[in-house]
Amino acid sequence: MATTIRTETKTPTDLREWLKKVDEIGELQVVTGANAEEDIGMATELLGRTRPSKATIFDEIPGYKKGFRVLSNGLGSFARIALTLGLPIDASPHELVKRWQERVRKGIPTIAAEVTKDGPVFENVLRGDQIDCTIFPAPKFHEFDGGRYLGTGSFDITIDPDENWVNLGTYRVMVHDKTRLGFYISPGKHGRQHRDKWFARGQKMPVAFVAGGDPLLFLAACTEIPYGITEYDWAGGVRGTPYRVVKGPVTGLPIPADAEIVIEGFVDPNDKAIEGPFGEWTGYYASGEREEPVLRVHAIYHRNDPIILASPPNVPPDEQSFYRAFMRSARLRGDLEAASIPGIVGVWCHEVGGSRLFNAISINQRYAGHARQVGHAAASVHTGAYLGRYVVVVDDDIDVMDLEQVLWAMCTRSEPAESIDIIPRAWSGPLDPRIHPDKKGFSSRAIIDATRPWEWRDRFPISQLPTPAMKQKALDRWGWLVGKGERPKSRG
Ligand SMILES: Cc1cc2nc3c(=O)[nH]c(=O)nc-3n(C[C@H](O)[C@H](O)[C@H](O)COP(=O)(O)O)c2cc1C
Quick one: 301 and 330 in the same domain? Predict the structure, then answer.
């Protein structure tokens, strides 16, 4: 039975409007009394691992001011991702993926941020002796974390000192004490490239850290937006209206006028403290703890009753790997098509690999070598390069979002001795659990060609997968046997 799909939703303008809309669709719950030392982390892990599960606001957190809240599991449903991106909230997962990938393929037009003089973020301004980062209920998310993390569903705003472009990147932020924050950026990330440039000049890097903001801006900040493009402009393009930014009084960086919490300061190359360990997206504490540069806080701005947007990684599949699979799959597809590779039918960066370690691409094979070209490109383009491991290329009869179908194709259409290429010394980093602690930096990639071999594809055994028409007919007629649809009335 065909479902009616509502038209695209209007993208909310900030976190508060977003929460109102999430509440309207019945996907918001509020919990009071959970503590930040343990409860919020445990509850977040459970929520992130269960789908569907509601976006959850924690309020009245013991030891903190009432109204100082934490929002977790914000993006843990297709409907909430759709709402954030302005897509129809009642479309099926496949339809949503198709629509979003089409939008990305057409190219997201950029809309420059609009500079304003003021905004709700300045409802409370803390300077000098008033500076205290510990007033916010930053949770300890995992049992063995080395501290409280104020920055997970957050982003850091930095500027390239040579090329003068602004980047928004999600890089975890730990609270050292009232006036110092620690943050970790993996090698090669845009914020890290900025930092390397500032430090190479022997200068401190200005940073504005946004601990709770508009979910769309957060999604942009944790997605591989191309080098040189400011995430404000990209996210502005997605929602069709410019972001409102204010020039940060301390750093001059553009900060979101409607953000919940913004902290400005400077990072000195010679001022370091231990950061971590932190439960990471691979499901391990792989980068351990090490010295990282410290952000010295010069000013804190926050709205009344501020909300920390939290999105800690847990063992995948979890909330984070889910929304990142959605975003990254579209970007990977865009990267492949930008490389002029034809015949891409489906792309899915599977949640189980944290949306990086196990990526599947289906193609309509057009020529000899096509499948290998796709696999190698997917492992090397911007979106797929960092800390990848397996790329599987399958034929277009395989649903790439269906992990079991992808594995079935691997089991039956690849022949290990012939079908696997290895790329050595590719881009990895400290977070890779499988690389020896003294040898972090590089890792290899396996490109698995699980397509029917080009030369004898016409003689490859016919698969028993039902054709789409037959599958639909079976569902219409017999779906009730498996709980899909109504049992037809007996004709007596
Ligand atoms: C919740 C969350 C936390 C993240 N933490 C980090 C981090 O601590 N360090 C890091 O390098 N990348 C981290 N990432 C990944 C980056 O946000 C991602 O690679 C993004 O594309 C970086 O921005 P850039 O492309 O502008 O460098 C995190 C992503 C998410 C969703």
Answer: no
